[in-house]
Amino acid sequence: MAHSVIAPVLLPLLTGIILILLREKNLLLQRSVSVLSILLQILLAGGLLFQVNGGEILTYSLGNWPAPFGIVLVADRLAVWMLLVTSLVALFSLLYALNGTDSSGHHFHALFQLQLFGLNGAFLTGDLFNLFVFFEILLIASYSLLLHGGGRLRTKAGLHFVVINLVGSTLFLFAVGVLYGLLGTLNMADLAMRIAVMPQEQVPLIKAAGLLLFGVFALKAALVPLYLWLPSAYAHTSAPVAALFAIMTKVGVYSILRSYTLIFGSQGGLAANLIEPWLLPLALLTLLIGMAGVVASKGLRQQTAYLVVASVGSLLVALGLNTEAGIAAGLYYLPHSTFAASACFLLANSIASRRGMLTDRFESAPPIEHARLLGGLFFVTAVLLAGLPPLSGFIGKFMILRAALAHSQFVWIMAVILITSLLALVALARSGSLLFYKVQGAPVPARMGTPSIFAETIPIVGLLSLCLALVLFAGPVSGYLQLTAEQLLQPAGYIRAVLLMGEPN
Predict the structure, then answer these.
(1) Mean pLDDT, rounded, for 475-488
(2) Which residues contact 392 (CB under 8 A, 6 or more apart)?
C-alpha cells in the first residue's frame, strides 16, 4: 500500500485547516503557507508521476479496509497527470491572487486549498460515492471563491452556478442509488466486474443510471446543452478564481473518461460503449456553439469563458473517437487548453484594470499603459488558443485530426475543427485589434491600487511557458499519454490492482 497516494489529498486539507486557524491575522504568513503547500503538491504529483510512469497502479485503502468495502484511492497514469496539471494551474493562479485579490474578502487561501482538496480527491478516488463527496467539497469551496469580493453580477452568476450544480448533485445521488441498489457496490473496479456479467433484466435500469451519470458529468464539463452556467460564472468572478476554474470543467471530462472506459467501456457486457452514440455529436455541437459564443462576445473575459466551452468540445471530440490515439490526443490538448485559458483570464484582468470604465469591453478606448508588453502576451495567448503553429494548440489539434483519420465521420470532424479554428483566429484578431490598435484619446492612468506590471505578468508568463514546455517536450509527453490511453482501454490492470490490494499478483 503506497502512502504517497493519499498525500495530495491530505496536504491541501491540512493546509486549509491551518489557514482557517490563522484567520486574517497575518496575510503574509497565510500567503507563504499557501504557496508552500502548492509547491509541495507539485513535488508530490511529480513523485507520483515518476512512480506510475512504468505502468504501476498505486492503491491506498483508508483504515486498511480492503476494496470494495473500504474507501480506496487509486493513482494511475491518468489520475497523476490530472494532479500535476491542477497543481501547476493552481500555483500561477495563486501567485496572481497575491496582487490583491486574496485580501478583498475573507478566507481566500483556506478556500483555495479546500478547492484543491476536492479536486485532488476527485482525481484519486476509486469509488463513485466518494467521487460525489469530493464533487461536493470542491463545489462548496468554488461557491465561496466565485463570490469572493462581492458584486451584483458576481452574486447573480454565483446563484445560477449554485442552483444548477445542486440539481446535478441530486441527479448524481439518484444514479449512484440505482447502481448500489442493483449491484450492491459503488467501487468502480467492482462495478466494472459486476456490470460485465449483469443479467438481462437489470440492463434497462443500469443503462438509465449510466446515462444519468453521463448527464451529471456533462453538466460539470459544460457540454451542450448543459453549458449555460459557465460563461456568466467565469466571466464575472475574480481573475485568479476564473484561472483556477479552467480546470473545473476538466473534472467532468476526467469523470466521463474514467467511468466510460472502466465501467461502460468495451468490456461493459450488455452496457458496453454506452455513450458512444452520444459523445461525439454532442462534442462537435459544443465546439460549434462555444465558438459562436467566442465570435459574439462583447468582452475579453466573456470571450475567454466561451473559449473554455469550445475547448471542452475539442477535448471530447478526441475522447469520443474511443481509440488510443484519440484519448492520447485529448490528454495532450487538456493541459494546453487549461494553461492557455487560465493565462487569458489573468491577462484580461490586467488589460481591464488599465482601460478605465470600459474595462475589457471590445470598444475603442484610449491607449493603456504597458500596451506593448500586454499586447505581446495577448498575441502569444491568441496564437495558442486559435491553434496556430508552432505552439501546443496546433500540435494538440493536429493529433486530434490524425487520430480521427480512420473514423467514419472524419469529414465532419475535420470540417468542424478547421472551421472553428478559423473562427477563433478571426475573433481573437478582432479582439486584439480593438484592445490595442483602434485606440483614441489620451492614455488612461491605471486604476488606483493596480499592482506592478511585473507582479501581474509573471504568472501569465509562467502559464504560457508551460504551453511552450508542452512543445519542447512533445515527444516524451505524447509517449506518456499514449501509454496512459493504452492503460485506460485495458481496465483489467486497474481492476486487478484495486480488488487484489495486498495480495501477490
Answers:
(1) 95
(2) 332, 336, 340, 384, 467, 468, 470, 471, 474
Sign of the four-CA dihedral 215, 221, 224, 227: positive
The conformational region for residue 162 under phi > 0 = left, psi -120 to 50 = alpha, else beta, is alpha
Residue 433 DSSP class: I
pLDDT digits (tens, 9 = 90+) for 196-216: 888 888 899 999 999 999 999
pTM, full prediction = 0.94
Q: What is the pLDDT of residues 294-335, one digit of tens each?
A: 999 999 999 999 999 999 999 999 999 989 999 999 999 999
- Cα–Cα distance, 334 to 395 (Å, whole number): 12
CA atoms within 13 A on the CB side of 96: 29
Question: Which of the four pLDDT bands, split at 50, 70 and 90, describes residue 505?
Answer: very low
- Block residue for cell numbers 460564472: 233
Could you give the 3-state DSSP secondary structure of residue 190? helix
Identify the sign of the CA torsion 331, 333, 335, 337.
negative
Do residues 140 and 491 lie in contact, with contact meaning Cβ atoms separated by under 8 Å?
A: no
Distance from C-alpha of 499 to C-alpha of 192, rounded to nearest angstrom: 11
State whether residue 361 is helix, strand or coil.
strand
